[in-house]
Amino acid sequence: MISLVPRAGKPDSALAKAVDLARDVVLEVAEPSEVGEHLGARAEGERLVTHHFACLRPGYPGWYWSVTLTRAKRAKDPTVNEVVLLPGEDAIVAPPWVPYKERLQPGDLSPGDLLPVEDEDVRLVPTYLFGDDPLDPPMDADAKAQVRRVAEDLGLGRVRTLSREGIDMAAERWYAGDGGPDAPLAKSAPDTCTTCGFLMRLNGSLSETFGVCANGNANDDGRVVSLDHGCGAHSEVKLARKQQPLPMPDHAFDTLTDDDLETI
């Protein structure tokens, strides 16, 4: 059953009685089999009433038809404002829209795909800072072009580099991901990456927290891992005696010849 939130105020009596008119309006956009019982009318304002009818259209459970009627002051004949199909509390609706850029996950980009970043991306700052005084006015397009030209002339290589916010966002993402200490692989590891000979340290502010795994037999090979991460492919891991494979038996030397086989 669809529950409708009542509006304050008493609906206009002439408009509230125009149920048949409201149903006829719905039948202009829907089949008779798709329109159910009248669910009621509510006031939307002065001389403005909305009628609701159950929707029986296949694939739309919990939806309802909504017809809004009005009339001019001192007029008796209602006028149709709009007719729409709306979702109720139990209706099946699409999930909230998420921009494409926010829906992207690692591995979604295919060869040839482009993912441009915005000029004001907080994760990046100009490699050569120009006008970094907070009292300076924001840079216009020409000023930004000059910054890029200066970066090229100085041979800085990259026009922009990671900002403090960008570094922090990356660190939080890596630490909470599969290469962090809370990953199931790390919780069952015999030791942490800090003491592993396959760990390659990073430079910069993240060097005390992260490194890159260089063990080609490990799940994290070539990936960023936290120093308190770990796995079973640690360089110093040793198997207990009971975990070691059983030794192969000595080869048996067959001394039988073809003549011996004929006498058997």
UniProtKB/TrEMBL annotation:
Domain of life the protein comes from: Bacteria
A Pfam family: DUF3027
InterPro entries named among the record's database cross-references: DUF3027
Stated name of the protein: DUF3027 domain-containing protein
Native species: Nocardioides astragali
Taxonomic classification: Bacteria, Bacillati, Actinomycetota, Actinomycetes, Propionibacteriales
